[in-house]
């Protein structure tokens, strides 16, 4: 029998692959199938952001005189309906997993001591183990994080209604996405970022993101000293002495691998389990995948890691390749990018995205997004691509794969695109091909 610990993207996909190969598989899940992606993170952002975008688009069309009003949001009803749909999606995933032949055990606590597997303190025999125990929200070491009214992405569902003033501590994707959402909902939002907001993003992409965060107060290179309050949060005190009034605080300060139940394995100081490119841990027969092995903390990467682990458990030598995996954040537009190789010596080209579904009514404001490509001038190979436009996330999913396969800008001559579309990469790649031909 094979044991999988954790029913998130990595564990579920790994378990299904093993079961489809005819193996007996037992998946242990303390909570619900689908993991944090479905219940706390990705799908929560999708649900909330769909409503945020609707409100923003309605406001744009009201400003243009097309609509006479903007809908009024019921935040309690939004939470209720969102939870109902997440439960429905979880039941769909459960049915799919069971149909693949996986036995699911809910509510049990699984742990490892080297290669020994315990379920609710009962030791069981396992031919191999896949540990996919995920992560949890990192809590910064500042006073006041335990006050009522302080939330993480995991506890945000407990917030009863919209805060009038929300302070978000953090400078990553989660901070930006929730800032956009709650600003669109009508809250006054302040971001406090110790380093900077999305400082690792390409500067052109970051500038576009900041357009979508207009109206959000952004304090960069600023450290929070404490969260103040009595029975509940009242404000956030900054290191420079400034005090930001707050009805709620969202901690968006990263993730911590959840590996306490995995003993006897080599780990890094942050608790992430060390694996090789085949998802093997330091203990023979024990594999790990997903957030528990540390960054990049991406659902598509976790899914692939789970499958790679399963393939190697089955004896099929398979290596995890992180090149070309797209990343994205969702604001008013999608912001997505992928890289497949070194950008040293590459030519970078950018251009406005064409107006299309989701961006037509933004044209009067002088903005419909942008596209960017990075091209190796010697081979014409597309090394990187980025897009800020409605639908960019779907576009980069396929483009990332094609880049990994070695697509060149010349190959875009044979592509007949869908129209209308917000895809600015297609014409930009064709333009790059023409530029390179002229140089030759």
Q: What would the average pLDDT be, to the nearest integer?
A: 95
Number of strands: 24
SS field, number of helical segments: 9
- The helix fraction, in percent, is 25-40%
How large is the radius of gyration?
A: 23 Å
Label the structural class. Answer: alpha/beta
CATH superfamily of the largest domain: FAD/NAD(P)-binding domain
Strand % is 15-25%
Question: Per CATH, which architecture of the largest domain?
Answer: 3-Layer(bba) Sandwich
What is the CATH fold-level name of the largest domain? FAD/NAD(P)-binding domain
Task: Tell me the number of structural domains.
Answer: 3
Spatial order of the strands in the main sheet?
3-2-1-7-19
The first-level CATH class name of the largest domain: Alpha Beta
Calculate the terminal CA-CA distance, rounded to whole Å.
60 Å
Poorly predicted sequence stretches spanning 5 or more consecutive residues = none
Shape: globular
Q: Largest sheet, if any?
A: 5 strands, parallel
InterPro entries: FAD/NAD-bd_sf, FAD/NAD-binding_dom, FAD/NAD-linked_Rdtase_dimer_sf, Pyr_nucl-diS_OxRdtase_dimer
Keywords: FAD, Flavoprotein
Pfam family, one: Pyr_redox_2
GO molecular function: flavin adenine dinucleotide binding; NAD(P)H dehydrogenase (quinone) activity
């Amino acid at each position: 029998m094979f044991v999988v610990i954790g029913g998130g993207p990595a564990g579920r996909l790994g378990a299904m692959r093993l079961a489809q190969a005819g193996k007996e598989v037992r998946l242990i899940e303390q909570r619900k199938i689908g993991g944090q992606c479905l219940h706390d993170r990705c799908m929560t952002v999708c649900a909330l952001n769909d409503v945020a975008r609707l409100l923003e688009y309605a406001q744009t069309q009201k400003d243009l005189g097309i609509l006479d009003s903007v809908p009024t949001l019921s935040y309690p009803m939004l939470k209720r309906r969102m939870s109902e749909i997440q439960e429905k999606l979880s039941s769909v995933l459960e049915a799919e997993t069971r149909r693949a032949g996986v036995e699911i055990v809910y509510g049990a606590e699984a742990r490892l001591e080297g290669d020994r597997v315990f379920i609710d303190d009962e030791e069981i025999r396992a031919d191999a183990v896949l540990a996919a125990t995920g992560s949890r929200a990192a809590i910064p070491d500042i006073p006041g994080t335990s006050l009522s009214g302080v939330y993480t992405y995991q506890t945000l569902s407990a917030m009863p209604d919209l805060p009038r003033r929300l302070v978000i501590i953090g400078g990553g994707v989660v901070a930006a996405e929730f800032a956009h959402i709650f600003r669109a909902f009508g809250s006054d939002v302040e971001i406090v970022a110790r380093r900077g907001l999305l400082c690792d993003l390409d500067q052109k992409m970051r500038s576009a993101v900041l357009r979508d965060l207009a109206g959000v107060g952004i304090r960069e290179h600023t450290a929070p000293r404490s969260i103040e309050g009595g029975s509940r949060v009242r404000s956030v005190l900054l290191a420079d002495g400034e005090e930001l009034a707050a009805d709620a605080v969202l901690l968006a300060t990263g993730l911590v691998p959840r590996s306490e139940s995995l003993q006897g394995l080599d780990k890094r100081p942050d608790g992430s389990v060390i694996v090789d490119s085949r998802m093997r841990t330091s203990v023979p027969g024990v594999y790990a995948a997903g957030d528990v092995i540390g960054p990049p903390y991406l659902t598509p990467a976790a899914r692939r890691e789970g499958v790679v682990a399963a393939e190697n458990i089955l004896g099929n030598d398979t290596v995890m390749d992180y090149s070309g995996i797209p990343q994205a954040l969702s604001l008013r537009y999608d912001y997505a990018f992928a890289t497949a190789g070194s950008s040293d010596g590459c030519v970078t080209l950018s251009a406005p995205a064409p107006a299309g579904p989701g961006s037509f009514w933004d044209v009067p404001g002088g903005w419909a997004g942008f596209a960017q490509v990075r091209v190796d001038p010697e081979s014409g190979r597309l090394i990187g691509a980025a897009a800020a436009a409605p639908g960019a996330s779907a576009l980069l999913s396929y483009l990332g794969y094609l880049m990994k396969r070695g697509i060149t800008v010349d190959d875009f001559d044979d592509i007949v695109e869908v129209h209308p579309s917000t895809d600015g990469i297609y014409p930009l790649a064709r333009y790059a091909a023409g530029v390179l031909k002229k140089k030759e």
